[in-house]
Design a protein that fits this description.
The chain is mainly beta. Helix content is about 0%, strand content about 55%.
Length: about 70
């Protein structure tokens, strides 16, 4: 199982996947907002979303776990 982590601190602007969704490597799964910029966070490998750890509007720190993919 792989946990996708936040690349920087910011607010969760949009969650693009749900638990059970199939994702491909490079597919955006979450968009963070920091300093008026949108930062897409992509899956690193193909797999199935097992757990979404965050909700839209949450604040996350760098390296916080966002989504688990198996």
């Amino acid at each position: 199982m792989t946990t996708i982590q936040a690349s920087m601190a910011g607010n969760v602007w949009k969650i693009l996947v749900s638990e059970g969704d199939e994702v491909k490597a490079g597919q955006d799964v979450v968009i963070l907002e920091s300093m008026k910029m949108e930062i897409p966070i992509a899956a690193e490998e193909d797999g199935k979303v097992q757990k979404v750890h965050i909700q839209e509007g949450d604040f996350v720190n760098e390296a916080d776990g966002l989504v688990d993919i198996e």
